[in-house]
Amino acid sequence: MYDYVIVGAGLFGAVFARQMCDAGAKCLIIEKRNHIAGNCYTKDVGGVHVHQYGPHIFHTNDDAVWQYVNRFARFSRFSYRPKVNYRGTMYSFPINLTTLYQMWGVTTPQEAKARLESERVAIERPSNLEEWALSQVGRQLYETFVYGYTKKQWGRDPKELPTSIIRRLPIRLTWNDDYFNDAYCGIPIGGYTALFKALLENIPVETEADFLADRERFESIARKIVYTGPLDRLFEYELGANDWRGLQFKHQVISEPDYQGIAAINYTDADVPHTRCVEHKHFDPVERDHTVITHEFPSDWSVGDEMYYPVNNEAGESLQKRYAAMVPKNYLIGGRLATYRYYDMHQVVASALHLAKQQLQSTSDTIPLKRAA
Ligand code: UDP
Predict the structure, then answer these.
(1) Could you tell me the residue ranges of all domains in the chain?
(2) Is residue 84 lining ligand 1, measured as CB closer than 6 Å?
(3) 296 among known catalytic residues
(4) Which ranges of the chain would DSSP assign to H, the alpha helix?
(5) 145 touches ligand 1 (CB under 6 Å)
(6) Residues 41, 130, 296, 340: which is the catalytic one?
(7) Is the CB of 166 under 6 A from ligand 1?
(8) ∠ CA 66-67-72, rounded to 5°
(9) 94-168 sits in which CATH class?
(10) Which residue from 99, 152, 153 has its CB within 8 A of the most atoms of ligand 1, so it is best to mutate?
């Protein structure tokens, strides 16, 4: 009998399993795919670590989370500074003084502030992504950097999306072009898969095992199930499928050492079908004669497709709540898919550590634990 059968070898499941196993609990991880690491998975293509399911950049302000992940890998000092290509012109991004210089020729924070103020659209209470962006940066910047990219990524008009999606991005009146404001940022040297291997050392993992295809058996061997997959799938879409976005990746090996000179270029014109082109070498630099690039194409999602982004609109949130109320008592849920949250990796680590701590406090009398987390 296992104390926990953990469904999914992604970040939430792996961190939770590590914590519980270190404390003496007996865990089994089952994973539908043929590999560990969930969407963080990186594949070694001739020495280049390819982020197979989209780029993952670890960033956090949380000392404990940063120290935790550094136990399992060394991190490079990578910081994310993508560029935007809009109709053939390159811009610095996220919006900063270089961007505003390129757009308007302003050279100081004061000039930039004055110009931005004259561009902003007066909207007292912005209620959707478009209104919020217009109220912050005005129509020209909105159309150059936000409208097309957002429409492609979410398959909806930005008027139909919540402001929270765009509020993730900084707008700066300095020359700082770092995507993240966090104190710590990096990429595990050797790729994420190596980090997961270290995280899962000595923990049994069954890959290519579909929990839902053999649910009764897995339930019969576990005191508790930790489920990290989507709830609509868990309940066989009984109340309907939730709103998700899909994503297609076109990976290409190119016979030249450097293709685009940077890790990511965002294509913000609505008429270009991909949202970005990623060159993996620049995340974790290696000297090779070849390079690997990936074009990302967001797609409509339908039952059976991989889920990438939860569409956190009102309908999606309300369906998620109804499913969450149906989760059996011996189930614990966590991670981006099960909680239907647009989480970053550091938030997933923090929430897995939190759940493990709670479990250790509440179950120490029923599971023979070596020590508290
Ligand atoms: N976004 C945009 N233009 C860009 C990049 C991002 O308008 O060039 C918007 C878009 O709505 C996106 C949101 O900002 O959904 C958040 O972007 P982020 O890079 O955080 O998304 P991630 O790929 O990390 O999930």
Answers:
(1) 2-41+56-76+185-239+310-363, 94-168
(2) yes
(3) yes
(4) 11-22, 63-70, 97-104, 109-119, 129-141, 148-154, 192-199, 215-220, 231-234, 314-324, 336-339, 345-363
(5) yes
(6) 296
(7) yes
(8) 100
(9) mainly alpha
(10) 153
Phi, psi of 93 (to 5 degrees): -155, 145
Pick the CATH number of 2-41+56-76+185-239+310-363 from 3.20.20.70, 3.40.50.720, 1.25.40.10, 1.10.10.10: 3.40.50.720
Q: What are the structure tokens assigned to 120, written together?
A: 């902003």
How does pLDDT run along the chain (373 residues), one tens digit per residue? Answer: 999 999 999 999 999 999 999 999 999 999 999 999 999 999 999 999 999 999 999 999 999 999 999 999 999 999 999 999 999 999 999 999 999 999 999 999 999 999 999 999 999 999 999 999 999 999 999 999 999 999 999 999 999 998 999 998 999 999 999 999 999 999 999 999 999 999 999 999 999 999 999 999 999 999 999 999 999 999 999 999 999 999 999 999 999 999 999 999 999 999 999 999 999 999 999 999 999 999 999 999 999 999 999 988 888 999 999 999 999 999 999 999 999 999 999 999 999 999 999 999 987 656 666 644 4
Q: Name the amino acid, one letter, at 38.
A: G
Kindly name the residue from 276, 336, 340, 343 that is annotated as catalytic.
Answer: 276
